[in-house]
Amino acid sequence: MIKGNKITIHDISKALNIDSSTVSRALNNSPRVSLKTREKIQKKATELGYQRNSLASNLRTNRTNTIGVIIPRISRHFFATVIAGIEETAYEEGYNVVICQSLESLDREEKIMNSLASNRVDGILISTSMETSKFEHIKSYMDNNNPVVFIDRPSDAFPNCSSISIDNFKASYDATKLLIEKGRKNIAHFSGPQNIGLYKTRKEGYIKALQEHNIPVIERYIFESNLSEEDGIACAKKLLNHPDIDAIYSANDTAAISAIQYLKSQGVDIPNNIAVIGFNNDPISEVIEPSLTTINQPGFEMGKLSTEILIQQIRNKSENTKNESKVLVPELIIRKSSENS
Amino acid sequence: MIKGNKITIHDISKALNIDSSTVSRALNNSPRVSLKTREKIQKKATELGYQRNSLASNLRTNRTNTIGVIIPRISRHFFATVIAGIEETAYEEGYNVVICQSLESLDREEKIMNSLASNRVDGILISTSMETSKFEHIKSYMDNNNPVVFIDRPSDAFPNCSSISIDNFKASYDATKLLIEKGRKNIAHFSGPQNIGLYKTRKEGYIKALQEHNIPVIERYIFESNLSEEDGIACAKKLLNHPDIDAIYSANDTAAISAIQYLKSQGVDIPNNIAVIGFNNDPISEVIEPSLTTINQPGFEMGKLSTEILIQQIRNKSENTKNESKVLVPELIIRKSSENS
DNA sequence: TCCAAAAATACAATCGATTGTATTTTTGTT
DNA sequence: AACAAAAATACAATCGATTGTATTTTTGGA
Asked: Which residues of A touch B49 (CB under 8 A)?
């Protein structure tokens, strides 16, 4: 084989003196080609090292058999599990997956969306970035009759669009309630950006639990940030100005964990002085001491479900896509950081 | 705009009564089109919601501006940092990145390779799976004059192929030496599959350090496994049959961490009874108690470097690709698990 | 052996963009 | 005003595979 000389169906066609249309059909195992020639062609193809050019094929058929996935960051445990679910379902159904990370940047999210669209992926699964408050890029993609399913962060802007999410309100409510039942009275909340519905809902669940137990909601006990590692430390520092506080419910594990580490370094006894509950069930939450009570989201299942819905929408593109949203119930995992000793 | 009716350059061409070749040039900002018509065309394009069809474009130009990345698992911290480096460099240079995970399966690795090849990515960065002992898929891709750069796990099968790796021997040697200097005499080693060069080399570094310090190498102190969480526990269990052992050098953090947890649960004092050193600097290594002494690989830099080399090879495809391998030096991060109290 | 039906294969257009070459239009000079 | 050079645009082939239609070949029954 000559280096860099890509073999096409026309090369096979010439080599065997068979029309390229027949070669194409043979390589796709079409019954329109007799078994004898089919085998001859396939043999020659492997002999020449033929490799289908998907660009040409996809251009002609107007399908790529590829699903685009846009998520904030692949290294986050939750998203890694979501991806595992997506890939499993997609491969079962014969779809390829292209994973892209927005790194929580709207600009990158837009560029990725554009690139996926121009590469004609058959549909997109998206978990929007923290910065995403404009939705033009998603709207224009959907306007072009392209299927989209939101994961984890459904958007109010598209009430008719399918989404897979969890019941953040209930999870938050349950977590806060647990702290109350353990006798905590002054529970702080580490909250995320309020333009992300999910963080708003988590805050609401927290507030609701307090109210139902006749505990006053104190605004300065609610610390809003991006919930990064640094944010966790910063919030913990501020929190020490309020000696009443005896518990933290954090909207993610990252901030909860860095807060625990900072508080421990300042001589605070976790959980006796301050109990902590996080969100996400990151692997570290099990290893830190004390181990962190947290909320586990069924990422794998979310990935599977969202992919199933997307593929169904791809296949029934002609029919009107109906909203197929599902809300799953996350699980409160009780560990040491919330238990009185 | 009519739903699902994708706009092409021909639509713009008709709308303005300008030939499609001129439209194409205008959209690519070619100076061959007068500024006036260029602007007119671009305006019409956005007005109609035109979106370039990359399939067609890439088919014609025979370039995709895309780099394929095959790694065992995106959720591993080391690979996540590698990807960050890859993406940064790639985007700077105007390349897209397609990330695929082999999940340590040769079968998947082959399928991915095939898919990337048929989608005509411009080059591939690969860190082979644990199962990869046949290299036909890589060879046939390279034989077709496609650039490949190995990351982290260079292959003996391709001595002339560029690769970015670290000095596993030195890192291992240094880690073992540290334990010896701390007075440890009976140092166990958790090793990985020996068909992966990197685990073999790590073992050799360990052996060399022992020998240079006149410490006998005891075969049953070397535990070979896949270094998973379960393997770490299993090895720790076996290790308790040898009460002499006073230190572990593990070829990865995962096994080291689960071993520490198991040993602690059995009442073993870490590091006083048994000191531990891991490999990879996983985030958990900093949080576990005692914090884990480990070796940090410069993943981000490895990603950047490998991408630079790959892009250079893509651009100079005509010239003979010369081996551009680099070996970086990892850093020993000393924490509590190796320090005598 | 002949012929219609069925099977197998060939022809030719197409997907959407790019690009070398040809043609038309504009510009500037005398 | 005439004309050559330069600028702008149009024409047409091409990338590689797919697919509807047309043509050729094979098959089997009378």
From this structure: 140, 143-144
